Amino acid sequence: MIADDVSLGEGVIIHHPDQVNLYGCILGDGCKIASFVEIQRGVVLGRNVKVEAFAFIPTGVAIGDGAFIGPHVCFTNDRYPASVAQSGELLGSNEWTVTPTRVGAGASIGANATIICGVTIGAMALVAAGAVVTRGRSARNAYFAGPSFSLAFFMERKLMAIRLQRHAASKPRYRRAISASATEPMAEPVRVGVIGYGYWGPNLVRNFAESPATEVVAVSDMSEQRLALAYERHPGIGVTSGADDILNDPDVDAVVIATPVSTHYALGMAALQAGKHLLMSKPLADTSAHCQRLIDEAASRGLVLMVDHTFLFTGAVRKIKQLVEEGNLGSLYYYDSVRVNLGLFQHDVNVLWDLAVHDLAIMEYVLGDQPCEVAATGATHLPGQPANMAYLTCFFNGNLIAHHHVNWLAPVKVRRTLIGGDRQMIVYDDLEPSEKVKVYDKGVTVRSGRERVYESMVGYRTGDMWAPQVSLTEALRVEAQHFAECIRNGIKPVSDGASGLRVVRILEAAVESMDMRGKPVAIPALVEAGATDGAAVAQTA
Q1: What is the DSSP letter of 356?
Q2: Using an 8 Å Cβ cutoff, are 298 and 272 in contact?
Q3: Rounded to 10 degrees, what is the CA torsion of 36, 40, 43, 49?
Q4: Alpha-carbon distance 484 to 304, whole Å?
Q5: Domain coordinates of the chain in residue numbers?
Q6: φ, ψ of residue 238 in degrees (nearest 5)
């Protein structure tokens, strides 16, 4: 019997419809169901899942794409099954608890295996025939019981699954995974494809996958090892070695790019021209000219262009901006930051483009002003490599000055910023576990008069220190939510294209100054013009 509330994808094959029990379940495209199979309400099967005869899949089970369920496999969904209560009365339908079970993409469960509820069988895992699984199996792991698989077979099967993801070039190699709560009403999430799964990509994928506002459709990377890792961590998410597969997929609404800086412009332009909203990892592009073209392209197509300046979405930086805007610090005197650590050495950009980009984005966001001139010095201590330490000074109109120290060759990790005003001062230490922002009621006062003694003209004010409460929610989680809201509601992103352009212009001027051993380089002011997506188009005044 196949109940009316069963959702069948395209190309589903049920060999003997009159010899199965299917009700209230979701079967993805291309699934194959043999005879005498029972699949209960709420079960979700991904694409191309094969279920052999006499298998029993109860409520609470979700199975990823390409999994194999052998004959007579039995899943359970109650940890402590019983038919009667302690009173002797028959238990009702609401007197027991479903414990969810998950089977990852490409996993294989052999004949007569029993899966005790509450476990997760990872992507590409193997469960041998006759096994009783009482605890989760990690991705690509094997659970031996009875006849065992050879290691050679196991490795070959893992490689075969990755190759299958690269098959059928005429159509997308993946579809978005079906949520286990697909029957619950909810707003349609923004469907995201992530290009790049190296250092930063896994953090992006994790946060976009966990956000209720977004859904990760697929991940692209040129490394098969990284694709296998993505499968392991996120069963059901499509993987591909070709970025074009994501750009050409109509199921993808937005693209997140986390690749080397030299690739940002080409990939970003291709994404925008494919009609995708774009979140680009920092910096926006390798030149200000490329930044401007990306901004123009996004504006002409009405697409959201946002830069992954992650720190702007931390509770600490947002609190600092609030304090500055409300005038708590008074007139600002200086902005001083230190961001040093041992590594990671980059080969395509210098330390300014790698580390100072964070502090420049924070400075631009907090101060709401742009420097008119910069001076930078730096040094390279590894032959043939970019500068690994640098000092950057930013001059503003008036007496406000900013200084940034960045270094890949420091023995300790430091993430500290000082902001001084004529009323109060702030110390922001990103490595502090709780009190990241401290506000000091300290300063100086200068008395007017004709006294000749310098000390008599300057007074020192020492007051209290207080640490305002700040949100400790992970910045990328907030950023993913913000990106989705900008797409849905046409809101201007906090870190829009124009923000990314301003940072890159400072970096370009800093490199020019560093090449001249610290000679100041002027930065012409920018005038923002209107843009349909809020990513303001910046023109040189």
Answers
A1: I
A2: yes
A3: 10
A4: 10
A5: 7-164, 190-311, 312-471
A6: -70, 145
- 134-168: per-residue pLDDT in tens? 876 555 555 544 433 343 444 444 444 444 444 43
pTM for the structure as a whole: 0.66
Let me know if the fold of 7-164 is the same as that of 312-471.
no
CATH superfamily for 312-471 is: Dihydrodipicolinate Reductase; domain 2 (3.30.360.10)
Question: What is the number of residues in the chain?
Answer: 541
Could you tell me if 141 and 125 are in contact, meaning their C-beta atoms sit under 8 angstroms apart? yes
Which residue has tokens 């989760």? 136
State the distance between the two ends of the chain, measured CA to CA, in whole angstroms. 72
Q: Which residues of 388-404 are buried (b: 16+ CB within 10 A; e: fewer)?
A: bbbbbbbbbeeebebbb
In the block, tokens 């991705």 appear at 139
CATH architecture, range 7-164: 3 Solenoid (2.160)
CATH number of 190-311: 3.40.50.720
In which band, very low, low, confident or very high, does the pLDDT at 239 lie, cut at 50, 70 and 90? Answer: confident
Query: 232 — phi, psi (to 5°)?
Result: -60, -45
> In terms of Cα–Cα distance, which of 42, 22, 64 is closest to 181?
42
Confirm if 1 and 20 have CB atoms less than 8 A apart.
yes
User: What is the average pLDDT score of the chain?
Assistant: 86
Query: Residue 28, CB half-sphere, CA atoms under 13 Å: how many?
Result: 24
Looking at the DSSP bridge assignments, the partners of residue 161 are none
Q: 403: closest CA among 387, 416, 392, 412?
A: 392
Beta pairing class for 44-45 and 254-257: unpaired
The mean per-residue pLDDT over the stretch 32-47 comes to: 94
